[in-house]
């Protein structure tokens, strides 16, 4: 593996898909076909991808010793010695400064949100990820900041419905990741010391919370399509996309709880054909129902 490829892997580009939430305001404000709005949203997404990469590099430097003791994380570029800690920190600093400068150039409010996102993630990496449930709450707030960033980038108000659905979905995804880690540790007989916060979770409790959150998330989205969407789109046909949302949630539950493997459920779903097909159909259905 070349040094350049190892550096890129340190930024975990496969995780940047989370930054698609920055485009939520663009899609649900009916500006997707407006070139100027789309360009500003794309620049905001690129900035948050850079910030995400910087955070991942910083986090891997902080966790290098724990990663070396993990069965799969020990293969990460920094833990395996392919990238030095100094190189990773330098890259993280350059990316963070460039991304923040770009955000402030687009809109000062976007810049403030970007600073908050970076500060929150640094605090998460340093200490807060070790506190059960607070760690999941911070993950959810990171998704909310992405949605707000997208709204400020194109200067449209952030829908309360979209923020609510985002908060519920992000909390669901975060708890799913913790449930997967607990289930994998239980199945493989490994200690949970590789993530200190896991000591504060009980698999049975997290499972029940996931089931409840899954139902509430689907209900909130359905309510949005019937109550919030018609005022913006002039139709309640978006309700027809609800089954695809429900299928995606059920599939994620399966990957997190019933097929626990060494890779996280967020990584597994990006390789899962059924989930990817459902995601593609759901996205196409939403765009068609909103814009057709």
Topology at a glance:
Elements: H1 3-10, H2 24-28, H3 35-62, H4 64-68, H5 77-80, H6 85-106, H7 108-126, H8 134-154, H9 160-188, H10 203-233, H11 242-258, H12 265-269, H13 273-291
**Given the helix and strand composition, which structural class is it?**
mainly alpha
**What is the alpha-carbon Rg in Å?**
19 Å
CATH class of the largest domain, please?
Answer: Mainly Alpha
Can you tell me the CATH architecture of the largest domain? Answer: Orthogonal Bundle
Overview of the molecule:
- With 292 residues, this protein is an all-alpha fold.
- The chain has two domains: 1-158, UbiA prenyltransferase (Tetracycline Repressor, domain 2); 159-292.
- 73% of the residues lie in helices and 0% in strands.
- It has 13 helices and no strands.
- Helix 9 (160-188) packs antiparallel against helix 10.
- The radius of gyration is 19 Å and the shape is globular.
- The N and C termini lie far apart (46 Å).
């Amino acid at each position: 593996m070349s040094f350049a490829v190892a550096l890129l892997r340190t930024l975990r580009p496969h995780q940047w898909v989370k930054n698609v939430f920055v485009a939520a305001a663009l899609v649900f404000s009916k500006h997707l076909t407006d070139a100027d709005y789309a360009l500003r949203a794309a620049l905001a997404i690129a900035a948050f991808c850079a910030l995400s990469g910087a955070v991942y590099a910083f986090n891997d430097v902080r966790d290098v010793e724990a990663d070396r003791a993990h069965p799969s994380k020990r293969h990460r570029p920094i833990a395996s010695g392919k990238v030095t800690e100094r190189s990773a920190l330098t890259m993280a600093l350059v990316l963070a400064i460039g991304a923040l400068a770009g955000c402030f150039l687009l809109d000062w409010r976007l810049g403030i949100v970007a600073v908050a996102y970076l500060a929150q993630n640094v605090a998460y990496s340093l200490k807060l990820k070790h506190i059960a449930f607070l760690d999941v709450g911070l993950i959810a707030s990171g998704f909310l900041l992405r949605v707000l960033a997208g709204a400020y980038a194109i200067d449209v108000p952030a829908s309360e419905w979209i923020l609510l659905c985002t908060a519920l979905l992000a909390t669901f995804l975060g708890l799913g990741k913790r449930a997967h880690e607990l289930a994998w540790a239980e199945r493989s007989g490994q200690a949970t010391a590789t993530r200190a916060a896991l000591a504060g979770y009980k698999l049975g409790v997290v499972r029940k919370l996931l089931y409840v959150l899954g139902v509430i998330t689907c209900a909130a989205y359905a309510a949005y399509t019937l109550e919030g969407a018609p005022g913006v789109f002039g139709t309640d046909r978006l309700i027809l996309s609800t089954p695809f949302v429900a299928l995606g949630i059920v599939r994620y539950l399966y990957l997190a709880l019933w097929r626990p493997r060494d890779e996280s459920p967020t990584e597994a779903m990006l390789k899962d054909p059924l989930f990817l097909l459902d995601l593609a159909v759901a996205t196409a259905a939403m765009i068609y129902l909103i814009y057709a």
